[in-house]
Amino acid sequence: MKEARRARRAQLVMLCSLGCVLGACGGGDAAKTSGAGGSAGNGGSSAGPSAAAGQAGSSVGPDVKAGASAAAGSSGSSGRDAGSSARAAAGAASGSNAGSSANGTLINPAPGGKLFVGANFWNVEWEGAGDYFASGVNWATTQNPWNPTFLADLAPYHVLRFMDWNLTNEANNAQANWDTRPKQTDAQKEPIAFEWQIDLCNRAKQDYWVTIPHQANAEYFAKLAQLIHDKLDPGLRVYVEWSNEVWNGTFPQRAYAQTQGKNLGLAGTDPAASFLVYQSVRAFEAFEAVFGKGSPRLVKVIAGQAASSGPCQAHVKALSDAKINPNHTQPTVYAVAPYIKGNSVSDLSSKGIPEVTTWIQDNYKCASGAGLPLIAYEGGQDSYAAGVSACTQLQHDAGLHDVYTKFLDAMVSAKLSGPLMQYTHSGQCWGLKEKTSDTLDKSPKYKGVVDWLAAHP
Question: For the whole model, what pTM was predicted?
Fold first, then answer.
């Protein structure tokens, strides 16, 4: 079974590469599903590890502001004093509704303002469970399964996105059926139970970004909204996104959305784009029914493609269509994925950052024209074209520190708002760290983010 999955991943990577050459996908994040190669060539997201690998903020804590430099090299410290971040220290609390803001205010900065940083997590199978979970967890009884170093590492972030943990880019996904989704007491592989995703956010005191599998139905939307409302700390927001990269032809949700859009006779030249908006607004309305219309805790996300503002234009047009959006439900934010391409520090800095800055400027014009702030559902370094070994070596190059501070500065100048959701926190090539256990001096990208945040409180 594992070999079959690896072969399927490799096939998806080749399809993504071919599709991009032919202009069919415009850049791919298929390799995140494939677990192998693939460039984010035209501004999609990028890849997972090789099959063989198997294995920042408008306000940050004073410990982060103190600077990571002094702690560089301290084993597993991530450049922060142990227990110094109130959000990370909340790991001592039980996960459900623990430690919410006493005065009822929300803990993290609102989206759409000053740039801040969040993180995506890789598929557990790709990175290894030890990066996230403590050893020897008894899932039937545990109250806290988390690796303490992993919890401490999360302190610079304000939002956590669980796209890979939900297997969002797969068809016939157990997470897409409410009755077959993993339960909290099940052994956690893929997908990860919603309850543990929420628990992690509660402990870290960071907002929860959920990507809803494309095959989920209306009843599922309502039940998921109620689950999150009941279990997520009331001081935290929930970012709601239907599926992931529906523009990307290498993922099954693209074909699914095209078919559904055509069957419903939705207006627009791209049935998939129209159906993305159609289904998104219905998911938003299900969450509004539970959280309350206009709730400041609810962030409604529609996402497009960084390298082209075409999807944004299609989505904006669909939002005004009476059949697609009869109740005039509006998203809170529009999101794209600014990936920096380049196979060396020099290329990333001199070519990759200017290119992605132009992309963001174009999408900002589209999103702001619709009255929507522009944020990033993913983003960061993409050097996978160099190969697994070379890009993994590159991610430890000290020069990546300054690439990241320059990248964040460029995103501010291009009017990208927070959050910018790094893809990923840990993992080969894309991770701010390669492994959770890596010290700060081995993780220049992570240190760059921490230092940039300290300089932009």
Answer: 0.84
